[in-house]
């Protein structure tokens, strides 16, 4: 999580969506995080973004074994993730 915290916002959001997808594919579901909660608490770095907060909640709800598999998969694919994000920005004409 420390690596993700220091990553650019686009990478954080991309990884958060992947975490949520992987958790849901293993039948880990959490309720949507209420906007009021996000607005009022914001104690952790990821609470400022609903996508990030939801991904962390999915991870927290998963068994430790699944948490480890998801983290390993994300870490092993970081260079691919960077490439995907770069390609998306290039195709959208954004920096």
What descriptive keywords fit this protein?
95 residues, mainly alpha
What does this structure look like?
The chain has 95 residues and is an all-alpha fold. It is built from 6 helices and no strands. The chain has helices at residues 2-5, 9-25, 35-40, 50-61, 64-76, 78-92. Helix 2 (9-25) packs parallel to helix 4. The model has no long low-confidence stretch (mean pLDDT 85).
> What would you report as the Rg, rounded to the nearest angstrom?
14 Å
How many separate domains make up the residues?
1
Counting DSSP E segments of at least 2 residues, the number of strands comes to 0
The helix fraction, in percent, is: over 70%
Question: How far is the N terminus from the C terminus?
Answer: 25 Å
SSE run: HHHHHH
Low-confidence stretches: none
Number of helices: 6
Instruction: Give a short account of the largest sheet.
Output: none
- What oligomeric state do the depicted chains represent? single chain
What's the pLDDT, averaged over the residues? 85
Indicate the proportion of strand residues: under 5%
- Which word captures the global form? globular
Briefly note the structural class of the backbone. mainly alpha
Topology:
Blueprint: H1 2-5, H2 9-25, H3 35-40, H4 50-61, H5 64-76, H6 78-92
Helix pairs in contact: 2-4, 2-5
Quick description:
The protein has about 100 residues and is mainly α.
């Amino acid at each position: 999580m420390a690596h993700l915290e220091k990553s650019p916002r686009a990478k954080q959001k991309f990884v958060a969506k992947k975490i949520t997808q992987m958790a849901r594919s293993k039948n880990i579901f959490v309720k949507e995080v209420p906007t009021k909660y996000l607005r009022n608490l914001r104690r952790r770095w990821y609470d400022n973004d609903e996508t990030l907060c939801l991904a962390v909640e999915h991870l927290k709800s998963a068994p430790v074994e699944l948490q480890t598999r998801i983290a390993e998969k994300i870490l092993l694919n970081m260079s691919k993730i960077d490439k995907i994000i770069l390609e998306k920005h290039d195709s959208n004409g954004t920096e």
